[in-house]
Write a sequence for this structure.
């Protein structure tokens, strides 16, 4: 069964582009993002949808007040990255869907470049923008799909012994300067434009991957279905990076929980067992590092118990994000 479907969208009067922006407690960055969206040279027709994941910083109210033409979806709880974006995709109608992080600022021609490329090249299912840091440097964010060797040489001790090994050079595309356009396996998901007919063929983001690796898994399904994926240097977007994930209290546990799920889906029981072992290794390393700091015994004991709790949580196998229930809440939708 496909992880999702967009079959409920009517064929008539589709915009050229639906921009779906998921936000969780990124109020000021979100407002800058929407200002850049408003100022961009858009395709002939577009819609902008903001999905607010139950932010506590007034994000949703600020969007409603300052950007009345934006369609605002207020989730009743933090649905995570995959499910939150899927809610926006299902509510959208465009021929192309741009998943845009709330901590981005698009250059004026970025959206038009993405849509024009996909319209001219039907063999491509997705195109990603070139991302820039605030200091004017390019983010070298494209990667190749993780392999079992990636797990060993990135997440485990061998990677610390040989930090410039072949498997990490391959995984992080260190042979690609990110200056020019090229086909890629795993582009940055901060500004990923998806052709709707490709989504209808392969399905939406996998909601078991609550926060991480859902874009990787989607790109793998795209490639398996015969679609190519483009990193497009003509589409330029500033990416501040990590605005929501840095606020997430269970970041490390969720990261490894999603890694374990991804490796199970990709490589079966062997991949799951390997990543579970790697996760345990990392927890032991973390406790060894704490002990090396010669902390007060009480602080050390509490810190090690925290690592044990994070490990147990990471090894838990279910489909809900940490700290949220598994059922999908019906979001309250406000169309401004």
């Amino acid at each position: 069964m496909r992880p999702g479907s967009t079959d409920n969208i009517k064929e008539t009067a589709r915009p050229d582009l639906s921009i779906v922006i998921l936000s969780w407690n990124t109020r000021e960055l979100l407002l800058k993002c929407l200002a850049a969206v408003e100022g961009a040279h858009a395709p002939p027709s577009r819609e902008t949808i903001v999905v607010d994941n139950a932010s506590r910083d007034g994000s949703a109210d600020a969007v409603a007040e300052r950007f009345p033409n934006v369609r605002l979806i207020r989730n009743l709880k933090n649905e995570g990255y995959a499910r939150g974006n899927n809610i926006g995709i299902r509510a959208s109608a465009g021929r192309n869907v741009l998943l845009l992080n709330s901590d981005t600022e698009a250059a004026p021609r970025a959206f038009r470049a993405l849509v024009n490329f996909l319209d001219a090249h039907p063999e491509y299912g997705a195109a990603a923008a070139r991302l820039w840091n605030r200091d004017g440097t390019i983010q070298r964010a494209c990667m190749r799909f993780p392999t079992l060797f990636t797990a060993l040489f990135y997440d485990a001790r061998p990677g610390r012994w040989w930090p410039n090994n072949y498997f990490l050079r391959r995984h992080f595309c260190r042979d690609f300067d990110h200056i020019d356009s090229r086909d890629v396996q795993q582009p940055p998901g901060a500004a990923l434009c998806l052709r709707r007919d490709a989504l209808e063929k392969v399905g939406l983001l996998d909601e078991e991957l609550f926060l991480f690796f859902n874009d990787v898994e989607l790109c793998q399904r795209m490639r398996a279905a015969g679609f190519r994926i483009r990193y497009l240097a003509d589409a330029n977007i500033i990416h501040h990076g990590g605005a929501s994930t840095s606020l997430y209290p269970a970041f490390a546990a969720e990261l490894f929980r999603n890694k374990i799920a991804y490796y199970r889906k990709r490589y079966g029981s062997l991949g799951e067992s390997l990543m579970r072992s790697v996760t345990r290794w990392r927890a032991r390393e973390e406790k060894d590092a704490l002990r090396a700091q010669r902390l007060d015994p009480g602080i050390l004991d509490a810190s090690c118990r925290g690592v044990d709790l994070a490990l147990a949580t990471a090894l838990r196998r279910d489909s809900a994000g940490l700290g949220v229930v598994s059922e999908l809440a019906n979001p309250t939708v406000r169309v401004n």
Notes: Confidence is low (pLDDT under 50) at residues 4-11, 321-336. Strands lie at 17-23, 46-52, 71-74, 96-101, 104-106, 124-132, 182-183, 191-195, 228-239, 332-335.
